[in-house]
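Example with several molecule types.
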Amino acid sequence: MLTRIDHIGIACFDLDKTVEFYRATYGFEVFHTEVNEEQGVREAMIKINGTSDGGASYLQLLEPTREDSAVGKWLAKNGEGVHHIAFGTADVDGDSADIRGKGVRVLYDEPRTGSMGSRITFLHPKDCHGVLTELVTAAPATSEDH
Amino acid sequence: MLTRIDHIGIACFDLDKTVEFYRATYGFEVFHTEVNEEQGVREAMIKINGTSDGGASYLQLLEPTREDSAVGKWLAKNGEGVHHIAFGTADVDGDSADIRGKGVRVLYDEPRTGSMGSRITFLHPKDCHGVLTELVTAAPATSEDH
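Resulting structure tokens for the full complex:
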């Protein structure tokens, strides 16, 4: 069951400049940064608010670490902007199986590692009215320690 | 001060079909529908979660009511997908003035009426790393009655 907007994934050419834009314009501070080699991105998480399921909603700023990554190819085609949206769930495995059973293409056979130790998968945007949609189960500590 | 992700605005060709996709796939139910003639959209708000500032986060599904509306033109160019993101604030007037003072173009001279009686404005996407960004102050009853 999807219980929150977990994050909005925003692709950018220069992570440091984009982080600075969000800080200078809105006062948003970076909560966490990491490099995800599997996804081919360097990313910054900006926490915007807590959510009623005990989690939080973030902006996820994404800079590709290589041109042939999914985000790198998307940026070359589309320019900067919203790359995907992500819903939080306590059970990414169960929800993925349920959604696959409804005929929506789930891009990974098994969830992979996302931001801050989360487990994630993606749904095909062509099956979701043009929206690349991620499902996220946060690592146990993430939603409780901060 | 921006205190929540208020909504993600998603442009679609057929609102009823898109509402049904979100219901059938995720179990999301429509919270509110309306036509905004000034914006040229028919819209459905799907409430996803409550937020730590006492508000809520929604998906806002948008179907243009005329081809020459902003969303109609955007759809013709881009196809279905994420059209904008919106941050909630208690003071859209003050935050708009503050952000305009930082050199970011604010699209309206004065906030206009948005979903559920809210007051809204938009920031130019070219000044926001490609993201059309809305600022929203909810109508007083909206965040407290539901």
